[in-house]
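Section 5.1 Outputs to date
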Amino acid sequence: MRNRRLWAGLGAVTALLVASGCGGSVDKAGGGSGPRPTVLRMFSGLDEVEPFIQAVGEVSEGELRIDRIHSKHGESGEADLIRAVRDGRYDLAVVPVRAWHGAGVSDFDALVAPLAVDSYALQQKVLDGDIAATMLKGVRKAGVEEIGILPGPMRKPVGITRFLRGPEDYRGAKIGAATSAVAARTLRTLGARPVPRAFYGASIAGLDGVEHQVLNVALDQYDVAAESITANVNLWPRPAVVVGNPKHLRALSGDQRGDLRRAAHTAVESMTTEMRQAEADEGTEALCRRGRVRFENTTAAQLARLRKAVDPVYAWLRQDARTRGYLDRIRALRHGTKAARDAEIPSCEGQGADRSPTERSGLDGAYKMTTSEDELVAAGAAGDEVKPQNWGDFRLVFAKGHFAFTTENTEACVWAYGEFTVRDRQLTLTVGGGGGTSPNHAANQFGERFVFRWSAYRDLLTLSGVKGQVSPTPFWVKPWRRISNTPDDGLLSRKCPPPAAAFTG
């Protein structure tokens, strides 16, 4: 339901651009009697950009609206995306920092230098300051115009055949990594062999480890193969640059161009907060509940050796005068962030798997709820929840500690199943699996946990959110109507039913 997919990828950008033609010019939205907003088409494979999209509308007071285009593939098309914006096929695009070195722009290398920006707190400091504004000017060399830099998740060492703590653990290892000149140089310097990987659920077989973010280790279910995550090491963040086509931006007023830049700056804090929350709630908590991967910490001595081992990478980076200056300024900003950095370290302490009842509960039976997109929005759904798989004909079945639900409409049909527990007036759903079809290819993942307050009156089951818990809005847009006292899985969608194992444990 409410999955934050932090990288939806761009591997098929070239094919998509051919299919979508030249419709990248700034356009006016139709409908309504008031002033029509100017619509900007923006390509982004990153779901976490929703706060930026919302900020554009708020800062511009409705004069600007972002129409986000995205695709689910790997990161290999990032260079194609830069060219697509330059050539005018899109008004805007969000391009990860790691892609720019390969496009001849080295101005962002300091942001992804190994162990330099090593916490969300420091990343926010850097992006809130004037360093980011200075770096941004470099994109002009690629024929595009700068808008802003958005924060990204922290990438950690994930061990598959070995723990990745000190530099000695990297020697001879095949490490899957997103395409990045700086990351590849770092891994080779540590004696590892970088193996390009798009991730997003792609196979990591044959690798000794990967560099990846905690949330997507959970969403991609890489904990099936992975053995450990080095909790107190952040190799580098994955920030992204918002750029625009110069000609299309000139069609806007000066105030509107300023609104775009202010929106990017405004979104830094809210995006950082949402990413940290998602990492904790949907990443760390899910991984701890599954119990298949261990969070390991390096010792102070191992971390010191790791920093020393990447000195040659810094010598290479510091050959560029601008990068050298950025690195020095980032180092100065690190003072005072240690406490915040330590507070961000994920841990399974105090967390464990829920137990589900085997006896019949008072909720057992089948339920139905039908909602529309407008009703979902009116219920207060967040931007990343307003997706086709989150409205339509919902069916929900509870049976002796197991549940399954389906959602079906003309654009999507998805299913999920798992176990549930009831404690007083709190209902907890722990997902065992999910699938189906939807425009953004989202599906519920093993280990996700949703918590709701519940009440029942006659044939109506009413759910509501619980403060501090993940309580997806699509579940409580309306009351659910009981359509059978018998937990009949035949009442779920026939178009996309869950597997038969949904109610057998």
